[in-house]
Amino acid sequence: MELKIKNVCCIGAGFVGGPTMAVMSKFCKEIIFNVVDINQKRIDAWNNEDLDKLPVYEPGLKEIVSKTRNENLFFSTNVKESIKNADMIFISVNTPTKKSGLGAGKASDLKWVENCAREVALYAIGHTIVVEKSTLPVKTAETIKRILHYETTANKNFDNKKTFAILSNPEFLSEGTAINDLENPDRILIGGEDEDAMNELEKIYLNWVKKEKIIRTNLWSSELSKLIANAFLAQRISSINSVSALCEVTGADVNDISLAIGFDKRIGKLFLNSGPGFGGSCFKKDILNLVYICDHYGLHTVSRYWNEVLRINVWQQKRISSIIVEKLFGTISDKKITILGLAFKANTNDTRESPAIKICEDLIEEGAILKIYDPKVKESQIKKLLPEKNQVNWSYYSSVLEAAYDSHAIVVLTEWGDFKDLNWTEIKKIMKNPSWVFDTRNIIDVQKAKSSGLQTWVLGQST
Ligand code: UDX
Ligand code: ADP
């Protein structure tokens, strides 16, 4: 089939833009992909000869980048030139929750999206398809459309021949499995009104995705589907986390519950792992956004319903910190506590909204001295996460054993594979007595830990 799109620009070289364009470049050899960002350091990292220094860690990513970079995949800060040359532009910039002003704490801050739209309006030439990739509140496409329309028609300095088609194409990848999710997506959602533009985007995906998996909707359904998918996923986690507390007091085991209910096809097996609460850049932000939209339209009962998903999440994190304090004789002041894992989930170096950070903050607040180890999160990153005044209260180590040395307790906060099979006999020898291990991810070999002499607490079990 004849492809019209020859040159794609992606604005935003983050966790979504980078991996998405890498996978597209792998399957669409005849298209040039220019990934641009205003952050020079990030672009330099994407261009680093040493593929272990890419700014995003995802299994399988460096293998793709090594083959397509500087072939048909390019990373640069050259926003203007890349927009000019593009037939299709993906907007993949950050949309965090607003910190101040109207809707603060709930609505998404669209300033980065708006800036992109203005740049696109300014530099684009001829007909350009603009694709929303970032997760955005419903009706954002309308904002982008209005900016493009206004800038291209009202401002006389612009060439009136510019035309735009706006599409919504939300990304459903999960971090840690991004490459597999992109290569084998459950579905591709394309929202829009312009059939030709939708066909062009569909043609790109047809290079590796079956047609049956491509869903076409209007713009608003597409935008809202992304928010609702994340809200439903987060709701499952809050549901199972609420059950974990009930299991601990009744003698049931949350793993048994997940297994038993997951066999029901209507419920399904996935996404039923109880843990320290959900983190990541999307769930909290998207639910806050949903709550905000519902309130805006006067749907207060609906907004309260979704807000509870967030409340359970915060409650679960606080509950874990309190249990740690309680088990360590009611005080952790000046006690050394080993933290295993700071990333919000395994196989990523991302710590955005990580429950581990919240739990660390609580433990520091209680006076603990934290000894932190994570296989992919760097010390320099942790410095930005735990406030300056707290730095005397934590230190970073490059192995489990170093971090465990001389500590009263170990808290497993991320389900890294390395933590599943630890040598508890070795660890016990170098810890203080009594030595505790708190497993918030249900991954350690509890029997081995117990028989090595450790006291154990496992989330969702009445140990
Ligand atoms: C999520 C959505 O899954 C993805 O479709 C969307 O595009 C972006 O947001 P992500 O945040 O990268 O992806 O990771 P995800 O695997 O969904 O995990 C989110 C959080 O939930 C993590 O903190 C994870 O540890 C937690 N989680 C997940 C659980 O606690 N239990 C589970 O069973 C699954
Ligand atoms: P996500 O997880 O959605 O990919 P990130 O924060 O990882 O979010 O990445 C978004 C990227 O978008 C950042 O690297 C940021 O510098 C970039 N960005 C934001 N605004 C612009 C802009 N106007 N032009 C180019 N890049 C931008």
Quick description:
The protein has 463 residues and is α/β, with parallel strands linked by helices. It has helices at 17-27, 40-46, 61-68, 79-85, 111-123, 140-153, 178-183, 195-205, 219-250, 254-262, 283-296, 300-327, 355-365, 379-385, 400-404, 424-430, 446-451, and strands at 7-11, 32-36, 73-76, 88-91, 127-132, 163-168, 188-192, 214-217, 336-340, 369-373, 394-396, 409-412, 436-439, 455-458.
Describe this structure as you would to a colleague:
- The protein is of the alpha/beta class.
- It has two domains: 7-217, Rossmann fold, CATH 3.40.50; 220-463, 3-Layer(aba) Sandwich (Rossmann fold).
- It contains 17 helices and 14 strands.
- It has helices spanning 17-27, 40-46, 61-68, 79-85, 111-123, 140-153, 178-183, 195-205, 219-250, 254-262, 283-296, 300-327, 355-365, 379-385, 400-404, 424-430, 446-451; strands at residues 7-11, 32-36, 73-76, 88-91, 127-132, 163-168, 188-192, 214-217, 336-340, 369-373, 394-396, 409-412, 436-439, 455-458.
- An eight-stranded mixed sheet has the order 3-2-1-4-5-6-7-8, with helices on both faces. A six-stranded parallel sheet has the order 11-10-9-12-13-14.
- Helix 5 runs parallel beside helix 6.
- The chain is globular, with a radius of gyration of 24 Å.
- The chain starts with 6 loop residues before the first strand and ends in a 5-residue tail after the last strand.
- The relative contact order is 0.09.
- The model has no long low-confidence stretch (mean pLDDT 94).
- Bound molecules: uridine-5'-diphosphate-xylopyranose and adenosine-5'-diphosphate (ADP).
- Uridine-5'-diphosphate-xylopyranose is lined by residues 171-175, 230, 233, 237, 271-273, 275, 278-280, 282-283, 344-345.
- Adenosine-5'-diphosphate binds next to helix 5.
